[in-house]
Amino acid sequence: MKKLRVHALLGGLVLAGLVSSMLWVGAQPASADAQAIWAKKCKKCHGDDGKGDTPTGRKQKVKDMTTAEFQKKLKDAEITDMLLKGKDDAKESGHKKPISGLSEADVKELIKIVRGFKQ
Ligand code: HEC
After folding, report:
1. Which of 28, 31, 40, 45 to mutate to test the pocket of ligand 1 (most atoms within 8 A of CB)?
2. Model confidence pLDDT, tens digit, residues 90-109
3. 62, 52 in Cβ contact below 8 A?
4. Fold for domain 29-116?
C-alpha cells in the first residue's frame, strides 16, 4: 500500500516535470537555463569564466568578476536593477539598457552564476 503511494507520487513528479518542460519550449528561457542565457547574452563580453577576457570585453573594459573586491562591492540588488532596468551611468554599451527577455527568476539564477565566479 505504502509502495503504491510512493509510485503514484513519483509518477506525478515525472508528469509535472514533463508538463513544465513542455511549457518552456518557445517561451522565455527557463531560470534553470541560466547557463544558456549566459552563453547567449553575457559571454561575449564577460567570457566563460567571468574574467571579461574576450575581444568585446577587453574593448569595453569589463571588470574581472573573479576578484574578491568585485564580489564584495557589488550587491545583488544592484545586479538585479542593472539587468532589468539598465544603469544610467554604465560605461560603454554594456548595461545602459536592460538586457532584453530576462525574467526576475532568470536574474536570480544569473546572479548565482556571477557569484560562482568568485575564486
Ligand atoms: C556588450 C557587452 C556586455 C554584455 C553583453 C553584458 N555585459 Fe555585463 N558588463 C559590461 C561592461 C562594459 C561592464 C562594466 C561596468 C559598467 O558598464 O558600468 C559590465 C558589468 C557587469 C556587472 C558588474 C556591474 C557593476 O556595477 O560593476 C555584472 C554583474 C554584469 N555585467 C552582468 C552581466 C550579465 C548577467 C549579462 C548577461 C545577461 C551581461 N552582463 C552582459 C558589458 C556587457
Report:
1. 45
2. 766 679 899 999 999 899 99
3. yes
4. Cytochrome Bc1 Complex; Chain D, domain 2 (1.10.760)
Query: What residues are in contact with ligand 1 under a 6 Å CB criterion?
Result: 41-42, 44-46, 56, 60, 62-63, 74, 78-79, 82-83, 90-95, 99, 110, 114
Please compute Rg for the chain using Cα positions: 18
Average pLDDT over residues 38-47: 95
Closest residue by Cα to atom 22, ligand 1, is 79
- Measured CA to CA, the distance from residue 49 to residue 107 in angstroms comes to 18
| Ligand 1 probe mutation, 35, 41, 46, 107, most atoms within 8 A of CB | 46
Q: Are 47 and 57 in contact (CB under 8 A)?
A: yes
Nearest alpha carbon, ligand 1 atom 34: 42
Domain-wise residue ranges, the chain: 29-116
Over range 4-27, report the average pLDDT.
59
